[in-house]
Amino acid sequence: MADRRMLSATVAEDEELNRLSIEAQLLFLMAIPHLDRDGLLTGNPRVLFGRVCPLRDELRDRILILVNEWIDQGLVVKYAGADGSPVLFFDAFMKNQRGIEYGSEKP
């Protein structure tokens, strides 16, 4: 049987992840289920908040600060998408996805 865990147990020992503030770490872990098949997620702070943590009002005004922690630790790369909107690329996403068929999600 393929390993179908969404998150590797090695997350507990990941140096970069554990250098984040608790809030940034929480937001990062809550974002993972929302990534597309390429490890991408919107970088628009309002949309990101609405998708990832809509019930955590205390994080609403801190989204950009927390995402910048991810970027500073090298966990995420931020770039402009084809339409100019911000996109977040979770660099280690693909290496931690075992048993998931890449073609099962539309590009």
Low-confidence stretches: 1-5
Q: Helix/strand/pairing class, anyone?
A: alpha+beta
The outline comes out as: globular
Rounded to the nearest angstrom, the distance between the terminal CA atoms is 26 Å
What value does the Rg take, in angstroms?
14 Å
Order of helices and strands: HHEHHEE
The tally of strands reads 3
**Strand count, sense and closure of the main sheet?**
3 strands, antiparallel
Strand order of the largest sheet: 1-3-2
Helical fraction equals 25-40%
Average pLDDT taken over every residue: 86
Query: What share of the residues does DSSP label as strand, in percent?
Result: 5-15%
Number of helices: 4
Protein architecture, described:
The protein has 107 residues and is α+β, with helices and mostly antiparallel strands. Helices cover 30% and strands 12% of the residues. It has 4 helices and 3 strands. Strands 1-3-2 form a 3-stranded antiparallel sheet. β2 and β3 form a beta hairpin. α2 packs across α4. It is globular, with a radius of gyration of 14 Å. The N terminus is likely disordered.
